[in-house]
Design a protein that fits this description.
The structure holds 2 protein chains of 2 kinds. Chain A is 29% helix and 25% strand. In chain A, strands 9, 12, 15, 16, 17, 18 and 19 form a 7-stranded mixed beta sheet that branches. Chain A is α+β, with helices and mostly antiparallel strands. The termini of chain A are far apart. In chain A, a hairpin with a 4-residue loop joins β4 and β5. Chain B is an alpha/beta fold. Chain B contains 14 helices and 14 strands. In chain B, β13, α12 and β14 form a beta-alpha-beta unit. In chain B, α10 crosses α14 and α11 packs across α12. The radius of gyration of chain B is 19 Å and the shape is globular. At the A-B interface, α1 of A face loops of B.
């Protein structure tokens, strides 16, 4: 008897959800044959068998979430007879498949009674709510956030469940598209955006960065992005009306500056998790955290606090980007700072013309909270800070 | 116009008023007369009201509590003072088997309008025979009311309704509160039926009574500085418990911490938690936790005594454990 166990599909996977069996009891299985589709935290993955045999029983049921190593099915080796039922005569038929409960059950998620009740009333699918309580418990606040944030509308929540019933894998890309669609529609529906932009020469900043990096080992080198983020955080300290939330018809300034960093995902779509308390961190810290954040975002292993706490968003198009970006604010935030591609451009200064690396910084801000004049001053402040890069280090 | 007064003076004033206004009221207990009361609650009363009404008793709790029950049955309104709750165990037979049961056993023919006051609680290095908090034991008994005045107003206001009550009322006065000073408002009248919110909040409710109230308020203040708005609910009446107020606070705050100087096992805190589970389970956003005394006889040594009791920092830590 061969036990077919849920394999680990990467070092960060510790559980998976069976979406669909591709074989039935009695089927012959070849080496390398896809026998099941399992949903991991990242994607739906085809699972192959590396042994040959005949399917004896399918233990796991579609929809069941289980830890890595759980016996999902048993196969009979070539020539192996189906085992007789324990204690029965030799005329006993092949045993019924063991009930799903025989597999190691996934630990029950911790969901507070108040959260469960509220989710039921609001039609929120708790499987899609991240817990922020002790030990990751889902609390009432988490459900209220899910209700407030457009992403988890009942309709959106029902779709994957329906797909699961039909044995179809969840369309993760479509899900993310729906989430972005809801949030951005709400933003453009509710937030009167204004936009200002400023070209910022980066010659000094990049020269300083090059000098600073010369003394650093490769893994610790600073990227221009870290400098830009630090500049934004420091400039925001002087313009608190750009950092916070519009809630219940009024602006609530945030105490700390949690920079939401828009990170695009390889499979499409984007997430903007937060660099917490960016204003009070050194450049080195910020760089390390940014690297870590990008890595974990792409591995879909973000912490709930990072997902929910951004007080302002920064989008940085980077080398592949366009010259400038005018972003859409993430509600309930009130501002978004954008950076285009850093590129050499002709630069007029003191009656002469030079060629310098320049970036176009833009601000999209909520006109209910701030006015264009203040927004422009914020960008000027950012410009000034980036001309004194040594002061951004601390 | 409110005026500044101590808990001790408020209680003394309440007794003085009762003695002056109602000839059926008299005070009886160890050292209440010539010595002026172990805690000086009745200083000067002997001279003012005479030995008939301010009666020193032998060191026999069983005897003088029984005499108080007899006097109450005979139409008097006795205030019996027991030096500490530890000593009251000698009188448990009178209180539980007689005072609490007589109305029931006489088919309603007899009532026992008796008030028993006793000191409870630790914190004064009086060791394991003078420091325990056994309010929860009394709160277990049907037929009596159990009060825990924790504020100046309640020290001043709870005695009168207790004396008016047709059934036995046991009042627990925490020794740690006696020197508490505060403003007594003009209207200090108090009921003996309801719990009261002493500090409003929305993130967690700290449910407590008696000597733990100031600690709970200090914890709430510390928590406020850390961004957690804690409500503080003073139970005031330990039997019958005001379930409606408890559930209202739990529904408002979603998280609850019960602070009780009694021991955890089989405690009043356990009763409060059980009632929350029975009545407000679906309102909860976190498990209900308790801060109680360590399960040891209260130690004599100061540092050990402090470590054994609920303290503001323990309450803060318990509250923070409810948030990630």
């Amino acid at each position: 008897m061969i036990e077919f166990k849920l394999p680990a599909l990467g070092s960060d996977m510790d559980e998976g959800t069976l979406l669909e069996w591709k074989v039935g009891v009695g089927d012959t299985v070849r080496k390398g044959q896809v026998v099941a589709i399992v949903d991991t935290s990242k994607a739906a993955v085809d699972i192959e068998s590396w042994q040959e045999g005949t399917v004896h029983s399918l233990i796991a049921e579609p929809g069941q979430k289980m830890p890595v190593g759980t016996v999902m099915a048993t196969l009979l080796e070539a020539g192996e007879a189906a085992p007789a039922r324990v204690g029965a005569g030799d005329t006993a038929p092949a045993p019924a498949p063991a009930p799903a409960a025989a597999a190691a059950p996934a630990p029950r998620r911790m969901i507070s009674p108040a959260a469960r009740k509220h989710a039921e009333e609001k039609g929120i699918d708790l499987d899609r709510v991240t817990g922020s309580g002790p030990h990751g418990a889902v609390t009432l606040d988490d459900v209220e956030r899910a209700v407030a944030g457009a992403p988890v509308t009942p309709v959106a929540a029902e779709l994957p469940a329906a797909a699961l019933e039909q044995g179809k894998p969840i369309d993760r890309t479509a899900d993310m598209r729906r989430t972005i669609a809801a949030a951005m529609s709400r933003s453009k529906r509710e937030i009167p955006h204004y936009y200002v932009a400023e070209d910022i020469p980066l010659a000094k900043a990049l020269a300083w960065l090059q000098a600073a990096n010369a003394a650093r080992p490769m893994p610790e080198r600073l990227l221009p992005a870290a400098l830009l983020l630090k500049g934004v955080a420091m400039a925001l300290q002087r313009y608190p009306e750009l950092n916070g939330y519009w809630r219940d018809g009024e602006f609530q300034a945030a105490q700390a500056i949690h920079l939401g960093v828009a990170i695009s995902l390889r499979q499409g779509g984007l997430i903007a998790p937060a660099l917490l308390d960016a204003g009070s961190k050194t450049l080195t810290q910020l760089m390390q955290e940014l690297t870590d954040l990008v890595k974990r975002t792409r591995a879909a292993s973000l912490r709930s606090s990072e997902m929910s706490q951004a007080t302002v968003t920064v989008t940085n198009l980077g080398d592949q980007g366009a010259q400038a970006v005018f972003g859409v604010i993430t509600p309930p935030q009130v501002a978004l700072v954008g950076f285009g591609r850093v590129a050499e451009r002709p630069w007029a200064e003191n009656g002469g013309l030079k060629v310098l690396p320049v970036v176009t910084a833009s601000l999209a801000a909520d006109h209910r909270v701030s006015d264009g004049h203040r927004g422009a001053l914020f960008l000027r402040e950012l410009n000034d800070l980036l001309q004194r890069p040594e002061e951004l280090e601390k | 116009m409110s005026r500044k007064i101590s808990y001790r003076a408020a209680m003394r004033e309440a007794m003085h008023e009762a003695l002056a206004n109602d000839p059926r009221v008299f005070l009886m207990g160890e050292d209440v007369g010539r010595y002026g009361g172990t805690y000086a609650f009745s200083k000067g009363f002997l001279d003012e009201f005479g030995p008939e009404r301010i009666r020193d008793t032998p060191l026999s709790e069983l005897g003088f509590v029984g005499a108080g029950i007899g006097a109450a049955l005979g139409g008097m309104r006795p205030i019996v003072e027991v030096m500490t709750v530890n000593f009251s165990l000698l009188a448990l037979d009178q209180i539980v088997n007689t005072a609490a049961a007589l109305r029931h056993m006489s088919g309603g023919q007899f009532s026992v309008p008796l008030v028993i006051r006793m000191t409870t609680g630790a914190g004064r290095q009086l060791a394991a025979q003078h420091s325990h908090s056994l309010e929860g034991w009394y709160a277990h008994i049907p037929g009596i009311k159990v009060l825990a005045p924790a504020t100046i107003e309640d020290a001043r206001g709870m005695l009168a309704p207790a004396l008016d009550d047709p059934d036995p009322v046991v009042i627990f006065e925490h020794a740690g509160l006696f020197n508490l000073e505060g403003e007594l408002p003009d209207d200090w009248s108090a009921d003996i039926s309801s719990a009261r919110v002493r500090r409003a909040g929305k993130d967690v409710v700290i449910i407590t009574h008696g000597g733990s109230l100031p600690k709970a308020l200090a914890a709430a203040q510390a928590l406020a500085e850390q961004g957690v708005e804690a409500e503080v609910l003073d139970l005031r009446v330990l039997r019958p418990l005001d379930g409606a107020s408890i559930m209202a606070s739990v529904a408002r705050c979603r998280r609850a911490v019960v602070v009780d100087e009694g021991w955890k096992s089989g405690s009043l805190a356990a009763e409060v938690v059980a009632r929350i589970m029975e009545n407000a389970f679906y309102e909860l956003d976190a498990p209900v936790v308790r801060v109680c005394s360590e399960e040891v006889p209260i130690p004599y040594a100061k540092h050990l005594e402090e470590a054994a009791l609920p303290q503001a920092d323990k309450i803060v830590a318990a509250v923070k454990g409810l948030f990630a």
